[in-house]
Amino acid sequence: MVKIGNIELGDFPLLLAPMEDVSDPPFRAVCKKNGSDLMYTEFISSEGLIRDAAKSVQKLDIFEYERPIGIQLFGSDIDSMREAGIIADHANPDLIDINYGCPVKQVACKGAGAALLQDIPKMVQMTSEIVKIAHRPVTVKTRLGWDDNTKNVMEVAERLQDIGIAALSIHGRTRSQMYKGEADWTLIGAIKNNPRIKIPIFGNGDVDSPEKAKLMKDRYGVDGVMIGRASIGYPWIFNEIKHFLKTGQHLPPPTIADRVNVCKEHLDFSMKWKSNHAGIVEMRRHYTNYFKGLSHFKDYRLKLVTTYSYEEIISILDEVQQKYSEMEIA
Q1: Is the peptide bond before 252 cis (omega within 30 degrees of 0)?
Q2: CB 254 within 8 A of CB 283
Q3: Alpha-carbon dihedral of residues 85, 232, 170, 215, nearest 10 degrees?
Q4: What is the pLDDT of residues 134-168, one digit of tens each?
Q5: Which residues of 6-25 are buried (b: 16+ CB within 10 A; e: fewer)?
Q6: DSSP conformational letter for 134
Q7: Residues 6+ apart with CB under 8 A from 140
Q8: Helix (H, G, I), strand (E, B) or coil at 207
Q9: CA 266 – CA 300 distance, rounded (Å)
Q10: What is the DSSP string of 230-278?
């Protein structure tokens, strides 16, 4: 049984990675329903949170059915991060996660996210402050290092464990790689197999199939895997991996009806959480992903992303279901 503090996550938990502009409550709801064991909010700016910026505050929204869930914070100033940690703690998540992995310029070039991999003493001090104020486990997500010459994640793992973090998720790329090339899990495995390391180690990067999840589990011995981009438009991946690990068999892929139903659920959550108008607009980025691989879907997509009518969207989705279900049968 893998545990983070007192949170029991099963034998090989599947975590939903925090993704900016993706892992909002509506997206998390469909991933939870389809087998995700632990989820995180989108990452939240510490500066935005302490200044009460509406966008940052809204990201604190968590719901009972999502548990266990972590709030993820990023920032470059230790005092601001400490203050933001107190605000996040009051929102009553199951854990607080610190982002030391985000590679994008707007974050890393301001000294936050993956930039802290260049200043481990500061990273340790910042983490220590949050561990001190939190009334729940603190976890960290990071990368292998800043670039190929500074793959210092082993030192990061040992030092952060020593100051009290409860789990570590590692993306198998450096900051300079961004999301390019293949993720390298060898260092993740070395950390998991380091006798000094007692906390759960979760691997992240390129897990996009049940076979890949099993390979990472067997080859590197990680406690679980964190799935990001492969879940966008395909929340079924969590249950597919669980079934494969348990039985060695593949679940049948989602039918067109499955895709349409989950898409409608996602839309309903989105409208309920944001507002009818904002929910419809936010949902537009997801249609292509839900219907990836369907031939001649472009015309339907154009209709879906240009209408503001809920009834019209439902009607288009019903038409998609009817048309492509007939093709499935044929």
Answers
A1: no
A2: no
A3: 150
A4: 999 999 999 998 888 889 999 999 999 999 999 99
A5: ebebeebbbbbbbbbebbbb
A6: -
A7: 97, 98, 100, 127, 160, 165, 167, 168, 169
A8: coil
A9: 18
A10: GGTT-TTHHHHHHHHHHHS-PPPPPPHHHHHHHHHHHHHHHHHHT-HHH
Residue 109 annotated in active site: no
Distance CA 137, CA 91 (A): 14
What residue type is 165 in one-letter code? I
* Run of H or E residues at 165: none
Domains present along the chain, CATH in parentheses: 3-247 (3.20.20.70), 256-329 (1.10.1200)
Among 40, 34, 18, CA closest to 238:
34
Q: Residue 183 — left, alpha, or beta (φ > 0 → left; ψ -120 to 50 → alpha)? A: beta
Q: What share of the chain is helix, strand, coil (3-state, %, to 5)?
A: 50, 15, 40
Distance spanning both ends of the chain, measured CA to CA: 45
Summarised one tens digit per residue, pLDDT across range 33-58 is 999 999 999 999 999 999 989 889 99
Distance from C-alpha of 67 to C-alpha of 75, rounded to nearest angstrom: 25
- Residue among 31, 102, 109, 263 flagged as catalytic: 102
Written as one letter, the residue type at 7 is I
Q: How far apart are CA 44 and CA 58, in angstroms?
A: 10
Q: Name the 3-class secondary structure at 74.
A: strand
Q: Are 131 and 165 in contact (CB under 8 A)?
A: yes
Beta bridge partners of 15: 38, 226
List 229's β-bridge partners, or say none.
none
**142 close to 114: Cβ distance less than 8 angstroms:** yes
Q: What is the pLDDT of residues 62-115, one digit of tens each?
A: 999 999 999 999 999 999 999 999 999 999 999 999 999 887 878 877 888 888
Question: For residues 276 and 280, what is the distance between their CA atoms, to the nearest angstrom?
Answer: 6
Give dist(CA 209, CA 151) in Å, integer.
27
Distance CA 159, CA 116 (A): 14
